[in-house]
Amino acid sequence: MKTFLIRGVPLSMQQDGWWLNAPPPPSARGRTPASRLPGWRAGLLVALIALGDAMVWQVTPGLSLAVFGVAMVLVAMVAAGRVEPGRLRVAAAGSLLSFLPLVELVQPLSFAIAVAGGSAVLAVIAGLIPAQVPRAVLRLWPLGLQQSIRDATDAVGTADGARMAGWARQAIRHWLVPILLGLVFIALLLMANPVADRWLADIAAVDPALPQAERLGFWLCLVPLVWTALRLTALRERLAAAPGARPATPRREGLINPASTARALVLFNAVFAVQTVLDLVYLYGGVGLPDGITYAEYAHRGAYPLVVTGLLAGGFALLTRRWATHDRLLRALLLVWVAQNVALVVSSLVRLDLYVGVYGLTHLRLAAGIWMALTAAGLMLIFWQVCGSRDNQWLMVRGGGMALAVVYACAFVSFDAVIARFNLSHPVTQDHSYLCGLGPSARPVIAAAEVARGHRLCPGGHRIAAPRDWREWGFRTARARNSLAVIQSKARR
């Protein structure tokens, strides 16, 4: 039998494959994967949990939430290693914009902005490009929870008996002598220093109490949140992964097609024309309403349904735009219909204004007005899109940016004060129970009105509780407290 030899390879390597089972080189034996809880990452985890306990546990939400959010971002930067200067600047600006609403006032809106903005900042720190950030914001925390469970399982699985014995031997070899001699020196110094001996006695007298089950649960909830910020590099590929491509198949003509679109637009324009004419007659023409129908009822009945109508119309316009782009008749019908929808939403704003002029402002009516204005602006963007033959991505970027800007601005507006100021300065039906149930920001406005009118509107007076410490401080509440103090001091003079 002839032997096949590979020239240039040593004889020992030709005869067997011992090198395939060789142990790793000494420089690589001490390395452990990042998921095995290296000391610095475990230390940051414990430090952030301790900070979260100090900032959030049994504390009325305030400035402490913003401090904890900033700490999460800073720790994420440290754990991610070297971050490009451009990304650092984006992360700094994003953190400021995300957590500033929490400094103004902690409310559901500002909390949602902080969570979404903070998630986007973490995605930027992880190294994602701008196009990948929106999907990463939605996937960050579910993937972070999965990574936390996986890393915890790996850490427990590697802690076998041999490894634990090695750790114990190393700890004894490195720490036994320092600890024993240290205890001897401490005992001698305590004998020579009565003050230090008193301190030790006071410490020994403290009765250590185990944390409550609720507090332990709070710590466990913080673990995956903090660990997500510490493991951004491990999450980068999954956060950046694009959705799976759908198999290319011939496009089938569904219920929405050029023929159905043309017929729908003709019908919709005819139906909407009736409503547009009625609004022109009764809202703008000054013609009296039929007997038994008041302007308040007419305004209230149409304010909210017309917003839903405008939203549905916008969705239908997006679905049918691809056929209207290449057909002049469909394009003209679509533009007329979108214009009618804009007019109807403007009419709904006029109806709401009439209703508010009789019954006053509430949170729901104020929110409806904002969404009506946003709907009208979105429909005008659709009109612009159709005229310019632009794609839906163009519309989504501008419409989404406009909506985000409005929602972000709303986080800094004290709607309680706006409602109280409007209802007290206009001849509307006064609902004192609703007025007195508004938040702290409305207290200075109501107190000023009471001073001007010379009688109380709300029983029991006005008081805004001061925060117990700086963690519960909020800028808007502090402003309201100072304004109320000034008004009350003037009233006593």
Automatic annotation (TrEMBL):
Keywords: Membrane, Transmembrane, Transmembrane helix. The chain crosses the membrane at residues 63-81, 109-129, 175-196, 216-234, 255-282, 302-320, 332-352, 364-383, 395-415. InterPro entries: DUF4153. The keyword Transmembrane applies. This is Uncharacterized protein. It comes from Sulfitobacter alexandrii. The lineage of its organism: Bacteria, Pseudomonadati, Pseudomonadota, Alphaproteobacteria, Rhodobacterales.
